């Protein structure tokens, strides 16, 4: 095995290997310091982490005792796959599946699991359901309404703004007054009302046995702030490893510290130059301060060799980030052979931009690049609309990440609400949605039913015994039977989903116009997805926390074996790479976005462009439409802007690009001088009739 291990690690460079083997030396010289790998894009941080996981397991660490925290569930699965590959080589496995990583996931997903497991210790009911952003906003709106803040007081912040303020307080652990002063100054006059609102919102969540996204971190942090529980939970894991550490927030850092106060077994990797989530409360301070966060100082490893991109791509990317104000200086180099300079392409507008990109994508495919190895990246999910039209017109299949999610479609939400209501009868958001699907039941009746359920010891009996207006009685009886079946403990998963679908489909047909069958297709797709999860609770939790984020031109999430072009927001493209990358709308007003005003916000926009550019392996194309359509918040309306190239690429940086203007300016025909004499056509006109 030692030989195979050496072979599996032989591709690593010295620094990567040091990080992989950290702490694993002889007992005498054992290094138990926490480990930080801080390094630039494409330097192999994620692969180093995957190798480290494999190395640990090969060295005898039980996979159950590895906690691996990633940015998305997709990233966790990718890590599992990569670690599995290395491990299979080390263990000399051929076809056997290497051990899975049961504790690989996002902070939120792992938080949900731990909270359920330890619910009894912290006063939670383990059947809690989780509110996604939409549910959380709706509940905030409802509570606001109940407090009389929406109707009687005009100009009170919208429910979405209220939730953002609340969320920022939670994630940055800052007092309300500070958050208002810093980020929401126009809401500062409502401090007292907001405080009352948030108090009532917290009570409503507890009453209904629901947690929102932020609660998953907040309760987790609260749980491990209790020394006895911290010891209990921390002792389950020998190693805690975190990828993309630059995008964690203070709560997440505090969880890590509480789990492993001396930092033993803690490994984090990240790149401060790629920190792009401060709008959600993430702070780059976490990674910069990491070395001194534990009772023993951390070991810091830096990686400088880039394995992803060609030197010309690195050159232009390095120049974009070089002007950043605060950063851990890094220089990246590569010896990857280059396929020419990256392109900077001027196009007239977004429609022409779409045409150019579609042409180029097809040209790359002709040249042997599968669609899947190409991606188109953009600042905001709406920016790909013209391209989506163009791709559809040419029958180029695509999948879009980061846009309107599959789960946000109302028919999908309907079906999930049925399952949620069965999982947690006290969850009013789901319950209310279900009642409103039944003809003859309005909001008042719906609320009356939920009150009855709330007060009853047995929710099924309350639903059965409920007497709606006479027009709704027959349908209600049908629902009550389906609901009783869904709540029966003997029902094997995923039979619940089939049952719910059977009840729901007639309502779908009645409620929505669905001639193409797309909605039915989605519902059936959801039923198929369900079989991949162990239980109803896991299905609902994981779907809510990390939904299949892709939408494609076909209903439901895509299957993996098809070839399709990737469309993604830059935020969702984090950590990934493609052979060819197009970045749309590299203009001022978009990158940086026109809403970014402060120096701090502008810096984040710069990092965002850096993240986009460093996704490319061989080909990078930056598109600069000269007319760009923006929704300007300031003027409350849409308008076209004559756009300029992004300010992050200076005149001097242009030398690094191959510049192109498309379509090429028409050549002027040579000027022909007019004849010297006047030819009076009027004479001829008269002559024709004489
Ligand atoms: P990002 O900052 O974008 O998350 P990263 O630092 O995590 O990037 P990886 O995604 O791990 O970088 O690696 C980038 C690419 O380099 C991958 O294709 C990976 O397989 C490759 N790579 C990493 N290390 C080596 C190595 N020692 N030899 C060859 N290829 C490597
Ligand atoms: Mg990575």
UniProtKB/TrEMBL annotation:
Entry-linked InterPro entries: DExx_box_DNA_helicase_dom_sf, DNA_helicase_UvrD-like_C, DNA_helicase_UvrD/REP, P-loop_NTPase, UvrD-like_ATP-bd
Domain UvrD-like helicase C-terminal: 311-575
EC number(s) reported in the record: 5.6.2.4
Catalysed reaction, written as an equation: ATP + H2O = ADP + phosphate + H(+); Couples ATP hydrolysis with the unwinding of duplex DNA by translocating in the 3'-5' direction
Pfam families attached to this UniProt entry: UvrD-helicase (PF00580), UvrD_C (PF13361)
GO cellular component labels: cytosol
Biological-process GO terms, alphabetical: recombinational repair
Amino acids binding ATP: 39-46
SUPFAM superfamilies: P-loop containing nucleoside triphosphate hydrolases
Organism superkingdom: Bacteria
An example Gene Ontology molecular-function term: ATP binding
PROSITE patterns xrefs: UVRD_HELICASE_ATP_BIND, UVRD_HELICASE_CTER
Top-level EC class: isomerase
Keywords from the UniProt entry: ATP-binding, Helicase, Hydrolase, Isomerase, Nucleotide-binding
Span of domain UvrD-like helicase ATP-binding: 18-310
Family per record: Belongs to the helicase family. UvrD subfamily.
Official protein name in the record: DNA 3'-5' helicase
